[in-house]
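Standup notes, structure subgroup. Blocker cleared on the protoporphyrin IX containing FE input:
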Amino acid sequence: MAHSSLSTVLLLCLAMAASAQLSPTFYQTSCPNALSTIKAAVTAAVNKENRMGASLLRLHFHDCFVQGCDASVLLSSMEQNAFPNVMSLRGFEVIDSIKAKLETMCKQTVSCADILTVAARDSVVALGGPSWTVPLGRRDSTNANEAAANSDLPPPFFDLVNLTQSFGDKGFTVTDMVALSGAHTIGQA
Ligand code: HEM
Ligand SMILES: *[C@@H]1O[C@H](CO)[C@@H](O)[C@H](O)[C@H]1NC(C)=O
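Run returned:
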């Protein structure tokens, strides 16, 4: 009995350690209004122009597919110049303005990587889609990688074999890929 409850406690600790890095309540004490501030700004931007919701979702995808969700997509003239990004990524000014607001509220607390992630979720919600809980605490990269953006982001001419390989390299199944591609039901192409 004592032994089995100790095992249970140990297992719980291990499970917590495994997910300790990111938490939906990461900013609850350090910046309690962070999430409502992002939501208000995203909702306003989407109300002003519907397509912005799609653009913010795509920005998050292009951030995460190159060296992880680290806001490296925001570092100008590096990843932004990569072929799948140049002249087609939008929404930077929305993220910039949210970051500026959060800096005045809670200096150097909320990462751009988290802002991008939450903005993608809030965009989908603002456009009438489902909601989901976003674990927080991502760190921002200090470098971007144009070469990795060119090699990791799938270009529009990829066939199914290429796409399956590209998403597989990031740990996604074909089912994941098809589900994520549902993002193309919004926005402009
Ligand atoms: C499967 C591989 C993918 C390819 C080859 C691809 C390619 C493209 C291309 C070529 C565009 C049009 C860009 C333009 O006309 O300026 C586009 C738009 C878009 N993509 Fe993808 N994409 C892929 C996956 C994804 C994923 C996984 C997401 C998000 C979960 C996503 C979200 C979007 C959105 C929302 C738009 C519209 C953006 C806007 O209107 O500003 N895409 N994509
Ligand atoms: C794309 O897939 C084809 C087979 O359909 C393969 O020959 C080619 O090397 C792949 N290209 C890339 C860039 O993965």
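Discussed briefly. The radius of gyration is 18 Å.
Next: hand off to the docking folks.
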